[in-house]
Amino acid sequence: MSDKPEALPITVRGVTKTYGRVHALDDVSLDVKSGEFLTLLGPSGSGKTTLLMVLAGFTRPDRGSLKFGEDEMIRTAPHLRGVGMVFQNYALFPHMTVAGNVGYPLRLRKMSKAEASGRIDRALELVQLDGYGERSIDQLSGGQKQRVALARSIVFEPRILLMDEPLSALDKKLRDRMQIELRHLHEKLGMTTVYVTHDQREALTMSDRIAVVNHGKIMQLATPQQLYDRPENQFVADFIGDSTFLPVVRDGQGVRYGETTLQMDAAVPDTRTLALMIRPERVRLVDGAPEGMNILNATVTELVYQGESYLLYARLNDGAEIAVRGAIREGTFSNLPRVGDAVKLGLHRADTVIIAGEGA
Amino acid sequence: MTSAHLHAAGLRRDERMERWRLFGLGSPALLLVLVILVIPVGWLFYVSFIGADGNFSLENYERMIARKSYSRIFITTFQVSLLTTALCIVIGYPLAYFMSQLPTKWANLCLITVLLPFWTSLLVRTYAWLVLLQKQGLVNQWAISIGLWDEPLKFVHNMTGTLIGMVHIMLPFLILPVYGAMRSIDRDYMKAASNLGASPRRAFWTVFFPLSTPGLFAGSLMVFVLCLGFFVTPAVLGGGRVIMVSMKIVSNIELFVNWGAASALGVVLLVLTVIILWIASRFLKLEQMTGGGH
Ligand SMILES: Nc1ncnc2c1ncn2[C@@H]1O[C@H](COP(=O)(O)OP(=O)(O)OP(=O)(O)O)[C@@H](O)[C@H]1O
Ligand SMILES: [Mg+2]
Question: How many angstroms separate the Cα of A72 from the Cα of each of A32, A36, A66, A67, A68?
């Protein structure tokens, strides 16, 4: 595992899979670059696992094309695809030891005993389980099982690695640590990785790019920052982070919310209906009218203490409710306005994002 | 805090009471075992050491060693049991595998069909085979009428008939535990194996089969042990040509009214069965311990 295996790009074209009337995958096309860490993110039942199973060869789609590098793979049997996969429940063989599990793909490849045991040791070392080889599977904790499953899936140096919610069974602390470790491992090994999760924070933390999936379709494929700051549609904006949407109208070159003409840096999408996306942590309570700020007048309806931050709900004049989140330091909380107070909400022009409205 | 000693004594008493109650629930069954198992088996041992003259003697056991016919009976018993077990495995394992791969709804339907024979009595099923397989039976008539063979074949009153009947009756005892073990094998194991590069055949032999062996051992053992003491089917379908220990016991009592000899046979069969179970249990544990790795 000293030199990196050559990574492979993945090309998916027009893959469709229906179960009865359900479109688990609806004409999905996707390019995963060589060596990239790409995450499929979406709500439950959106088709993430189905897409991964198509890549691994366990689900036969109705139609479509799948290429690893230049090779068409859509009709290749799973055991001939040479991709590594970490299953959600790890799927470690209970009748083999840790070393037996990790060495399984090497035995299938008829590798000599000496070479195999060297590789097993290095793989276990990589996941920080050196010396665990002789343990049986049921003597391992959840996190250790996860590592063994990972070691088993990379020991034969696949050029593509697939992971289906590999961290979902772990507690939060361990999950946070494993996220960083998986990321480091990916940098070290450099294999093309497709990762499935429904945890948006996990996706934002780990990925080079994220494909947001809904109803078997890819809603947007972009870097984490693009996805968060410039979502292309309301679904993505809603799914990633919290946000409120205010209906706005086109007014000549600009955009108007009620009587207020909005200042903004970003371009306005070309759709019939438009919405202003407001993230709670991008809104500020302001006095007067600072430079570069869009100001909205509102009345406080609720104030919640959340430890590291406060969450304030305010009703705009048209009845829409907006959440404002701010850090608490130096006694901010006691200086905050009370329920019923009139406040001015400021949204900086750099944070003013107009997206396509619902039904556009 | 100190006043109640944190209720230590009371809690201990509750614990004790709970155990007694649990024991109380088990006591009727314990009593039953004592009355219908321990006492009769003790009596069996006792009788087997009583000679024809009513005094203590080893003659029942000496006769068993001295006479060739006895060892032949034991050999036949083991032969029939082993063959039946082997045939049950050959027929039952693939069937259980097939069932385990079906969707639950269809698998349950299959399971009911497998269990269906239990609803009719053993005797009825055995005589049904006699009707089917005898010289003028349905099978011979049908085969001759379509020209499969010309002369009626001898299916009953021999080893063949005995085996057919016994395999039919024993099959569910093998299928049930094997099917249970197979159902509990996570389908992801096979996917993982194939993802790691195993062809379907390799995946089966390296992952599925080893994980199904506990069920296979349990089922085989059950069939084998049940066969050892089997009476009705070999008696009817063997037609006197296949003599098993159980039949010798019956003839000792009914023909010769020799309770001592019959008891001695029973004791030997019992001891052999216990030894086999003991060896098998050692073997099973070893299997679980060494199953991994290599
Ligand atoms: N074997 C199957 N038979 C019928 N429908 C299926 C099957 N597998 C998946 N589906 C359906 O296809 C859709 C997509 O399922 P999939 O498992 O890909 O979702 P997912 O995004 O992985 O969800 P989750 O986050 O809950 O794992 C769902 O509506 C699901 O009910
Ligand atoms: Mg899933």
Answer: 15, 20, 6, 4, 7
A161 and A305, same domain (yes or no)? no
* Burial of residue B36 (number of CB atoms within 10 Å: 0-12, 13-18, 19+): exposed
Regarding whether A74 and A182 lie in a shared domain, the answer is yes
Give yes or no: residues A183 and A104 share one domain: yes
Chain A closest-CA separation from residue B46 CA (Å): 46
Both A93 and A167 in one domain: the answer is yes
Whether B94 shows a pLDDT value over 60: the answer reads yes
Are A225 and A264 in the same domain? no
Give the gap in angstroms from C-alpha A329 to the nearest C-alpha of chain B: 42
Q: Does some domain include residue A3?
A: no
Q: Does residue A237 sit within a domain? A: no
Q: What is the CATH number of the domain that holds A330?
A: 2.40.50.140
Query: Model confidence at A194, in pLDDT bands (50, 70, 90)?
Result: very high
Which ligand minimizes its atom distance to the CA of A23?
1
Domain boundary among A200, A229, A258: A229
User: Residue B194: which of A79, A134, A156 has the nearest Cβ?
Assistant: A79
- Chain segment A274-324, per-residue pLDDT in tens: 999 999 999 998 888 888 889 999 999 999 988 888 899 999 988 889 999
CA distance A234 to A355: 7
- CA count, 13 A, side-chain hemisphere, A177: 10
- Residue A31 in any domain: the answer is yes
Residue A35: predicted pLDDT: 92
pLDDT range class, residue B293, cuts 50, 70, 90: very low
Does residue A1 sit within a domain? no
| Domain span holding position A277 | 242-356
Verify that A23 and A62 share a domain, yes or no. yes
CA-nearest of A283, A295, A296 to A351 is A283
Check CB contact under 8 Å for B196 and A83.
no
Of A229, A257, A276, the last residue of a domain is A229
CA A256, distance to chain mean position in Å, is: 33
Same domain, residue pair A220 and A248 = no
State both tokens at B200.
């379907």
Closest atom of ligand 1 to A213 CA is 21
The candidate with the shortest Cα–Cα distance to B128, out of B148, B100, B101, B156, is: B156
Domain count for chain A? 2
The predicted model gives A89-98 an average pLDDT of 93
CB contact at 8 A, A255 and A264? yes
Q: Distance between CA atoms of A142 and A90, rounded to whole angstroms?
A: 9
- The size of chain B, in residues, is 294
CA-nearest residue to B288 within chain A is A95
Q: A308 or B227, which is more confident?
A: B227
For residue A175, the model assigns a pLDDT of 86
- CA–centroid distance for A162 within its chain: 14
pLDDT value for A2: 41
A37 shares its domain with A66: yes
Q: What is the mean pLDDT of residues A92-114?
A: 94
Kindly report the pTM of this predicted structure. 0.80
ipTM over 0.85: no
> How does pLDDT run across A196-212, given as a tens digit for each residue?
998 999 999 999 999 99
